[in-house]
Specification:
2 copies of one chain form a homodimer. With about 250 residues, chain A is an alpha+beta fold. The first copy, chain A, contains 7 helices and 11 strands. Chains A and B meet through strand 5 and helix 3 of A and strand 5 and helix 3 of B. Chain B binds a DNA duplex (30 and 30 nucleotides) through helix 6.
Amino acid sequence: MNTLSPRPVIVAKPSSASHCIECDARHRSVCNAIGERDLERLAAVANPRRLERGQVFIEEGRPAIDFFNITSGTVKLYKMLPDGRQQITGFAGSGHFLGLAVSETYAFTAEAIEPIELCRFSRPKLRTLLDDFPALEKRLLETACNELVAAQEQMLLLGRKTARERVASFLATRYSESSTCGPLSGRISLPMTRAEIADYLGLTIETVSRTLTRFKSEGKIALPSRDEVELLDPHWLLDVAAGQDSRAASFV
Amino acid sequence: MNTLSPRPVIVAKPSSASHCIECDARHRSVCNAIGERDLERLAAVANPRRLERGQVFIEEGRPAIDFFNITSGTVKLYKMLPDGRQQITGFAGSGHFLGLAVSETYAFTAEAIEPIELCRFSRPKLRTLLDDFPALEKRLLETACNELVAAQEQMLLLGRKTARERVASFLATRYSESSTCGPLSGRISLPMTRAEIADYLGLTIETVSRTLTRFKSEGKIALPSRDEVELLDPHWLLDVAAGQDSRAASFV
DNA sequence: CGGGCTCTTGATACGCCTCAATGCCCGTGG
DNA sequence: CCACGGGCATTGAGGCGTATCAAGAGCCCG
């Protein structure tokens, strides 16, 4: 509904031969299915690249010839309707594997929302890698299952939650995910714009903004800067996210 | 939002030793990854059952100890909020594999919406089967990917489509899926109630009903009976589903 | 110290939900 | 065979939450 998608081009290309060894994302990603002594094999087919904000590297409807592993930064995945309405189906960060498609074409578009680094794998090369390392295929199945679970949760959000609950869910999820890779503070970062949050939650920019402002005036969050939120009452947020808002219905 | 979920119990248990050979769903399901001569192995761990409408066989939050393959009939998969709001994340028919979970617990509830037949697999037995037949694991990954694509499409529907577009999408999808397993007529069956359609599309019963009535009065569909729809203009429906409704905006 | 963003805030409109009544279908029993 | 009852579906009237439209405020960067 917001933003019109930009030009699809790939740039840069740094890194050396066996870059996989020193890859930050390795332990988080499916690549950890491959032992340290086989990393050369992996590095041989992994093609590292660097992209800037706004660059599209997977485009809905285009032939699915490559697969990607995000090694740094965040991307958004989205689908669009012909009139420009847009639904972001997820944000993918470091360690995320993208482009798994049975079909001949991609089902969504992927675009960097900040400077990112990623590894590209061509379809046939990934295929041989999968054949040689069955553990990798198992890991892929695992991550696919986890994504399915997340997708179902998001359907519940989009189909049945109020704006208030959606925003609370979004903050709560960001909170719990950020806490898995760093010290647990109430502070979370939002690398995406309000428009992107809105397109992710099935709302408008204005509603997202109003809801955040309301949380702030209720003393539940603080907004120190444009892209940071401080959760002053995480437990309360979780309740709202789950539909347990005390200020909602519940006529007891 | 509608309906309160019923009691969880499993009943019946027909069929003989090597039932897999004569299973209607075999060719459609992941079981087709196993050759005919190994079907005995499969049959040994597949536990067939019969369930009636309303019976729950997977319950959100419960330990994920079994996996299921639907061999006949239709089930609904849903998630619920504590106050009863419900989102159906999908309908699964013959050949559909269910319960794939990495987590210790199920992420959704599965309930028969008509009399069904299914096969149950215990987790450890499925595990050994997967180890012995890598092709089965590949098939599972394939189906998981397909479900992810469907889930993303549904997120677009729930987040950005109007009621009109949602109902049109629903009919169009049912149409194209039914045509893959039978003669291509404009007639589709709806084994689910209006309430279930509503919970699938993120709408209310009334809105679903009104929208169908409106399509009918516009001459685009016919409603010969409660659970049947005749598509009189499939192409038009597809356009509406894709957000190309001529009667909507588009101020040209 | 403007220019162009994104974000916030306000006023109003509208689509869908809610509540309520009626209609239809079908199984049950007289 | 028909009256009755209970589900489910349809239809109507009105309200609410979020979208839409429109300024204005804050921020970054040259």
